[in-house]
Task: structure prediction
Amino acid sequence: MEKAILKLKDGKEFSGIAFGAPLDLAVGEVVFNTGIPGYQEILTDPSYKGQITLLTSPMIGNYGIEETDSESSGAKPTALVVKKLYRGPVMEGRLTLDEYLEREGIPALEDVDTRALTIHLRNHGSQNGIIFYERDRAEAEKRLASYPDITEIDLIDKVSVKTKIRNPDLGKGRTAPPDAPDMHFVLVDYGIKRSIIENFYKCNIAVTLLPSTATAEDVLKENPDTLFLSNGPGDPDRLKDAVSLAKALIGRIPVAGICLGHQIITLALGGRTVKMKFGHHGSNQPVKDLRTGRTFVTAQNHGFMSQKESLPENVEVWMVNANDQTVEGLRDDGRKVMSVQFHPEAAPGPEDALWIFEAFKENAR
Result:
C-alpha cells in the first residue's frame, strides 16, 4: 500500500492510500455521493463517466461485488475515493471491491478524510481533481491545470450503444422482456442504466434501444408509443443533436425522459439548463409532487438542472426538490411530454418513485 494525494483545482489537497488498479494520474471532476449501500450500482452508473466519485459512507465494500447487480457493463468513474475499505471476506462467488476495481482498471484512494473533503466540495463546489503519487507531482499539477471542465468534454459516445438493440437481454437474475407487450417504447441511449430498462419490462413495455446518434427518422421508423430519452453523463447543453431530436418529435409522439433526458427535454421545450454548485448525488433527496402535494424520497445523480425561470409558460413544473426548490419534473399534457430529474428506478435507493414508470405508460395512451 502506497500513499497518494488527491489535489483539487483550487489547490486543496487530501492524502490517502492507493488501492484498486495501478494509479496513473487519475483526473476528473470530483463529486460526492451520500448513499449508504449501493456502491456497485454507483460504480456502474454511466452518468459517472469522467468523474472521480467520493462516497461519504464511512466503510465501503462490506458485501463485495455481485455481477448481476451492475447497472451497465463495467465500472464508469475515473477513480473512487473512500474513508475505509472493507478488507474482510465476502460471500462465495463475489469479488471484493479491491479485486473488482483492479479488474476494471479503476484506481482508488482510501483513508481519506471524506468528511472534510465533502464539506470542502459543498462549500466551494464540485471541481476537477487529480490523484497522484508524490513522485509524480510536477506532471500531475501540469495535467490538472490543463484538464478541461466537464462542460467542455463529450462523454456520451463512451457510454452509448453503437447499434440498435431490440429488447436487450439484461442478464442473469434480471426481468426478461415481455412476451405480449402492451406498448413499445424507443429508448435513446445516452448512458442508460439496466434498471430503467428492467422497469419498462415490468410494466409490460417492449423497448428498442437506439444509439445517441439517432435521428427523428430513426425513431419514427420503429413506430413507437413513446420516445424515451435516458440518463447519462456531462453537460446537456453540448447535446445539440439530442435537443433537435426531441424538438422534432415533441407534439408528434409522446416524449419522456429521466435525468439527462429531462434536461434535454427542458432545452427542447425552450428552457435552459445550468450547472449546479455541487449537484444532487445520493439516495435521500426529497421531491414534492406539486399536483398532489405528496413528498417522497428519491435517488439522484446530476450536476446540471433545469432553470425554472427560463421555462415557457405552457410548460408545467410538475415536481420540485423539497430541500432547495430546484426543478425535479416537467409536464406538457397537451403535447404528451413528461420528464423527471431524479432516478425512479431506484438503483441504488428508495422505491418511492417506481410509479413514474406507470405514469410514462399512461402518458402514452
Remarks:
- The longest strand covers residues 273-289.
- The chain is about 20% helix and 30% strand.
